[in-house]
Structures are given as structure tokens and as C-alpha cells.
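Q: Could you write out the predicted structure for this multi-component system? I'm mainly interested in how the pieces pack against one another.
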Amino acid sequence: MNHSVKTDQYTHHDHYGVDELLDSDHLLARDAVRAWVKQEVSPIIESYAEKGECPTHLFKGLAEIGAFGPSLPTEYGGGGMDEIAYGVIMQELERGDSGIRSMASVQGSLVMYPIFRYGSEAQKKKYLPKLGSGEFIGCFGLTEPDHGSNPGGMTTNIKDDGDAYILNGAKMWITNSPVADLAVVWAKDEEGAIRGMVVESDSKGFSAPEIHGKWSLRASITGELVFEDVRVPKENVFPEIKGLKGPLSCLSKARYGIAWGAVGAALDCYDSALRYSLEREQFGKPIGQFQLTQKKLAEMITEITKAQLLVWRLGTLANKGKATPAQISMAKRNNVHMALEVAREARQIHGGMGITNEYPIMRHMMNLETVLTYEGTHDIHLLITGMEVTGLNAFK
Amino acid sequence: MKYLVCVNKTPDTTAKISFKNDGKEFDDSGVQYIMNPYDEWYALVRALELKEANGGEVVLINVGGPENDTVIRKGLAIGGDKAVRINGSGDSFYVASQIANYAKDNNFDIIFAGKESIDYNGSEVPAMVAELLDLPFISYGIKLEMEGETATVTRDVEGGVEIAEVNTPFVISAAKGMAEQRIPNMRGIMMAKKKPLDVVEPTSVEARVEISSFELPPPKAEVKLVDPENMDELVRLLHEEAKVI
């Protein structure tokens, strides 16, 4: 089907004047990323998703626009922006595609952020500028084949060997791993404490086989990380941080971005459905004039508006350093589920066309199935809220 | 060299256009604004390219209220060095007078503007600025090359191009082809916050044109299908309804 030349007609929807709550930097950042997505992503994304291929040339473009670590300080390759700016950038990227947003989330929140937060000065200087400029691509190894929602059960481990540690184990569902120059890896030391480290992909015993056959995030590359007696120099280990709070703090950062990103995917589905409902005629009038279509559209924009306000408030808290992991969990869970529901309703409004790659709906919907599960599943985030309100842990 | 780039704020190309106050005023409720694309993509970017090649300074100028600051900051994020906003509004003559008044004391080598703004499509301001400053004016340039103080400008004309030479200082309006859109990056957006945006009070200028009213184009008529056998009906419709024959 000929789709690639179709113009991206997306326009922003702001039913509650949320734009008035944003600063001019936020609006400029959002408009810049939107223009970049329309120019670089929209014309090619359906074809890459269809082929199941990652448009790796976009890494350089993402770096140039400033999508990697926008809220990190400029001296370490970041953008020096605030958390709301980071949020709107993720929103616009995911408006294009969740896989493209994932490329940026992983590089910024799961690779640059832990090196910035926990790395030694030498590690920061060595890696951050090159990660910010896209010269290095990074990935994040926490999840294992047998330990997803329970990362504390990990079996990947390091053993002291003089000036290095010997790393063994395997990680699973790692975004960017097959193309990564380095991985931030979490492994247990001989005392059983979880430690973080930078592992360069040209190390002996390091491999990153690609995971094939995904029906979701098809334009994002996903793989394993396999470590067979990989020597990791001791200077590559994060000096201070021990325990799960290290990786979990990174996930909070990434989940925060996902909460914003999901709004972008929902907006794209809504925008397409609204336009289609005004163009498509049945029984002599646009389908947007029928009550059942209006119900769908009205409920979609209601839920999107609530999600926009939720992330704006979360961003305001994050800027003050007051956004708690539980608040981030609630926003990630709510907004991703909202986006998936919006995609499903939008698919119905598009009728049969909704299942084709003429429209972005089915791609967003399939992507969002992953987003619902990764970075803390829909159910786990519910239990985090449950634990927050009851004080009782339902995980164990 | 010193370059002055006139930047205007216009409704987004997707904005729904409506009018209020008996059709005398544009209704901007819910309208999102952008920098006029001819100013941004062609005039500003070509000025930046010349500065990058030969050194100098790119100054942005806008006539309008504080609501225009986001658009001006975008110009600084793309690479402008500093900006001036003349804090007033009025017709084309008013705007051109304010720009000319600022430019006359600041010795700019080239004054750039887009060929028109995409809202009122007047193409008036740059010509008026040139006249008020008694400078040469070249309109609708699609290519601008500098050799010392001499510019070679290519203009689209019916059926071909016209190539003109002009020495600085001069005023030029830029059309599609003069440069390519640049998307600001996050670093540029942050740097723009530190660049000066001076607000200057306007000089007193009387507007010369009063808008009587705006009208939207008539809605598109429905397509009427006429049986090929019924030529009389086709002729009647063309004569009585379309009034073209």
C-alpha cells in the first residue's frame, strides 16, 4: 500500500488550555521536536515498522535535536532543561512512534542518567558527552529471562579478580542492545549486593543477540545481553550505589518520560480519528455527526485532557524534586492504559482503514501493548499504588 | 556585516479562521501561532548562513506585544544573536515605519523579510521599509550570493528567472528556495534564553488604512452531475448558476 508519501497532518489538541501552564522553552522544545518528527519520522516510520527494522540513522538526528538527556547538565552532554521540557520532548517523539521514543528514553534516562547520578567523575567525562552526541549508543541491562517484575532475584553476578570483576549472566528485553556501544549492567557482587557498571560491547565474552518476531515496537531494536566471563575493569563500576534503589531510580526517570510519551501516542490516534470522522461520510453525512462516534471522540479527548493535566502536575513536582516513585507509577499506568484505550476506540472510528498502515492507529496500538508491560507492568504499578495507600506490600 | 531580519507572528497553517466584531477583527481564540514561514525558513536562515560564512551579527526585529516573545525566542534559538521587539501594533505602514526608525540608527548591511506573511499576504512591509530608508529593494529573491559588498540575487519571473546585482545596504524579501528550514535544537532553545531581547516603545505613527471587514470565501458548492446526453441542462447551469458563459 502506498503510504510513505502521505503528509503528516497532525495538529495539537489542547482542550483545557494546558499550553498556558507551559513556559516558552517548553513550547519551543515541543514545536521543534514535532517539526523534527514530521520531517524525519512520519515519512518513514510505517515502512520501518512493517519491515521490522530499526531506523538507526535516527540516533544521530535524535542527538542533534537534543533528545538525549535533555534535563542533564550541559557540561555532561545534556540539554540543561527542566523535567517538563523532557516530558514534552518524549510526548512529541511518541506521537511519532513509541519505538523512537524508546530509543531516546533508554539513551537518556537509563544510560546517561545512571552514569550522571552514580558514575565517578572519570566515567562521566568518558561516556556522557559521547552519549549525548549520539557517538555512543547505550543500553540498560536489568531484566533477566527469569526475573522481570522481580529484578531483585537476578542471577547475573560479578566476582572480584584483582583490578577487574568477572561478569557472568544474561539479560533479556534490552532496547538498543544489538547496536549498543556500551551497556549499563546491574549484577550481584559476591555479598549479594546489586551493583551497577558500564560494560563496553567490544569486551571479550560480550554478546547481544537480537530478539526477532515482535509484533510491537517493530521499529525499535531489542535484544539480549549475554556475559560469559566478561572482564569489567573496576573503574567501570559505579563507586557508591548498592542495591535495587540504583536501577529503580533510573526506571522512575524513564517511567516519568513514558507517562508523557503515552499522551503523544493518544493524541496522534485522536487527531487521526477526529479528522477521519469529519471526512468519512455514511448515510449522507460525516460519521462525526453520529452520536456513537461523538461519544467515542468526546471520551477520548476527556481522557487525554485528564492525562495532560496529570503529567503537567507530575512535571511540576519533578521540577521541585518532589515527584515520588509512587506518583510516577500512577501516571505511567494511567496514561499508557488511557492511550491504549484511545487507540482501540480510534481504530473503530477508522473502520476497516484503521487496520491498515494508511493510518498510524494499529502501529500505535501494537506499540502500546509493550509500553503497558515494560518499565513496570500495568499490574505492578497498581500494586505500587496499593502499597502506597495501604502501607501493605502485596508483592511478597 | 550586520543583518536585520524582520520576523512576524502568524496563525498556524492549520488554524481555523473566523472573524468577530462584525467581520472587522480576526478571532484568535484557540488559534496557535507560529513564526511566519517565509521569515523563518528563508529570510532568517539565509542571514544566518551569510553570518556563518563571513562573520557578523543577525538581529531580529518584530513589531508587536509581549505575546510575540515565544516566536522571537524561536528565532534566537535557530541562531539569531539578539532581538528587538517594538512594543506596538498597527497597519503595514505603522510596522514598516517602526522597523525603519530602528534600522536608520543601526547601519544594517542587509535587511531581510519574508516575501509575505501567510495571514494577510500583503507583501508590503519590506518595500515600505526600503522606501522609508531610501534603500534599494529586491522582492521575492530565491537565491542570494554575496561577493564583498555586492549581492547577486535571483528572482522568479514569469517563465524564467531574473538575476540582479545590488550593493549593500539594501532590503530584500525572501521566497522559497533562498534557504532551507532549520529546526532549533534543545541547546539552541536554552541559549536563546540568555540572548538579549530588547523591548523598545514605538514612535507615534498614524495608521493609513482602516479595515472595513473581512469575509471568508464562499463555501464550496456541491458537485452537480449532468447526464452527457443533456447538454442543454449543462449550458443552462453554466449560464444561470455558474454565470461563466
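A: Regarding packing and overall arrangement: The beta strands of chain A are 138-141, 157-161, 164-175, 182-188, 194-200, 206-207, 222-233, 281-282, 285-286.
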